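ugh ok fine here u go
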Amino acid sequence: MLETVDELKKLQPIVMKQLQMIFEKGRIAHAYIFEGEKGTGKKEIAKFFIKLMLCLNPSKNVPCETCRNCKRVESGNHPNVLHIEPDGQYIKVEQIRDLISTMTKTGLEEGRKIYVIHQADKMNVAASNTLLKFLEEPDGQVTAILLTEQYQSILPTIQSRCQHIKFSNIPKEFLIQQLQEHGLTFSMASTVSQVTNSVEKGLALAQDEQFALARKTVLKLVETVRKNVNEALLIVYDEWLPNVKEKSDLELSLDLLLLAYRDIVAIKANPESPCTYPDMIQTWKEIALSSTFEQLSNQMQAILQARQNIGRNMNRTLLMEQLMLKLQEGYSFV
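structure:
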């Protein structure tokens, strides 16, 4: 979990500056949509912003973390802060009616009332229309924060009444650091950071035996195909094909293969380039020295073509045989 303001600033520097400026200028809007992929810190930054709005002793646009309000927001016990999550597949109209009813009760404390709608794109039509009326005519000092990964799925009429805060993807270096703090090696963290932008998904991938096997097989193939295409084909038959049961498995394996050749191109251009496979740098340098940019480009094109052919339901064995021959051709004139 991200705990400190500094970590949140590293994760989303633009969003944090935006929200702190809004607070500093006293221009808190009545509704926001926080849009960003999973793992981009929407929940954590929403909590930061709520604390900032309710904090009794904010300093330099940062909540104090020690006052009664900050502590209650942190523990989820502030009576003026409500959270709505989907009930099953959707957020239902009854949930929004209950929310509005609670927000308009006099039993709440003085001051700003805040509600957070998680996965706001999951509101059904009736729920969206009910919320819309409340957004148009909020009762007193009320701020809404809608969290979503699917901005386009929210009613345009709701979008137009909210300030849109766009969260960027996590910087790769920050993601790698977070994954390492959860116990991943630098090499595995570097690899999964190219496949997902989420710490949670990255950790799940790293613990997935099938992913580890796919990674290992890809690296073996890159080393082998330049020396002996028949040996590479044996790896395809014995290790690659048995591991790709689903179409998505084959797509991921080809993506990992493409990333290996992209590493080699990057190292050829600049030996200090960051890599998807830092544990292979020495091998990549050797391959880079014995390859031209044109050859590497042709090899990457062959992988991209193979990936396209998956969608055409081409026989997997034939697809991989053709790919190995094309990858080996890249070394024919070295």
